[in-house]
C-alpha cells in the first residue's frame, strides 16, 4: 500500500475523525461541532491510503500550538483496519518534521497506551510533575445531553 501524508484540512474526513474520537477513551461522546472546531483551530495532519479511485483517510492527529514556543499533541489515531502496519510511526515522523514545530521549547502529550511510540521521538515522563497542574472535566461531553 502507498500512504500519503497531508496537512490539507480540505481533504480530511470529518465524519471519520468524529466517529473515532467519539468512541475513544479520551473523548467519549464528543460532539461533531466540537471536533470540527478543534480541527479548524489546530495544526492537523493525516495519512491517506492511495491507489483507489478516492484516497481513504486512515490516520489523523493534531497539534494545539502557537508555532513559536509550545505544542500539545492530541487526538492521534490509526483506524483499526490499518493498525499494525507501522503507520503510527510514519505519521509521527512526518508530523514532527513539520516546519511549524521546529525550534519549539516544549512539546507535550498525554497517552495511556502509546508510551513506546512517543519515546522514540524524545518524549519522557514529566521531569518535575510537581510543576504541572490540570483542570479536567472528563464528563464534559455527556453534560450536553
Verbal overview:
- The longest helix has 10 residues, at 87-96.
- The chain has 145 residues and is an alpha+beta fold.
- Helix content is 26%, strand content 25%.
- It has a five-stranded mixed β-sheet, with helices on both faces.
- The chain starts with a strand and ends with a helix.
N-to-C order of helices and strands: EHHEEEHEHH
Strand order in the sheet with the most strands: 1-2-3-4-5
The helix-and-strand class reads: alpha+beta
Helix content: 25-40%
Kindly, what is the distance between the CA atoms of the first and last residues, rounded to a whole number of angstroms?
A: 41 Å
Protein traits:
single chain; 145 residues; five-stranded mixed beta sheet; 25% strand; globular
Task: Describe the structure concisely for a colleague.
The chain has 145 residues and is α+β, with helices and mostly antiparallel strands. The chain has 5 helices and 5 strands. The chain has helices at 14-22, 32-40, 87-96, 115-119, 140-143, and strands at 2-6, 43-50, 56-65, 70-78, 106-109.
Task: Please outline the helices and strands.
Blueprint (H helix, E strand, L loop, with lengths): L1 E5 L7 H9 L9 H9 L2 E8 L5 E10 L4 E9 L8 H10 L9 E4 L5 H5 L20 H4 L2
Parallel strand pairs: 4-5
Antiparallel strand pairs: 1-2, 2-3, 3-4
Amino acid at each position: 500500500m502507498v500512504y500519503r501524508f497531508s496537512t490539507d484540512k480540505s481533504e480530511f474526513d470529518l465524519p471519520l475523525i468524529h466517529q473515532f474520537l467519539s468512541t475513544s477513551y479520551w473523548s467519549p461522546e464528543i460532539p461533531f461541532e466540537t471536533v470540527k472546531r478543534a480541527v479548524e483551530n489546530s495544526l492537523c495532519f493525516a495519512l491517506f491510503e492511495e491507489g483507489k479511485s478516492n484516497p481513504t483517510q486512515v490516520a489523523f492527529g493534531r497539534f494545539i500550538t502557537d508555532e513559536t514556543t509550545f505544542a500539545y499533541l492530541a487526538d492521534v489515531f490509526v483506524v483499526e483496519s490499518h493498525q499494525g502496519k507501522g503507520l503510527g510511526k510514519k505519521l509521527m515522523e512526518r508530523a514532527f518534521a513539520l516546519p511549524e514545530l521546529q525550534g519549539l521549547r516544549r512539546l507535550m502529550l498525554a497517552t495511556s497506551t502509546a508510551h513506546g511510540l512517543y519515546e522514540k521521538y524524545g518524549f519522557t515522563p514529566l521531569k518535575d510533575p510537581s510543576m504541572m497542574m490540570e483542570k479536567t472535566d472528563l464528563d464534559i461531553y455527556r453534560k450536553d445531553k
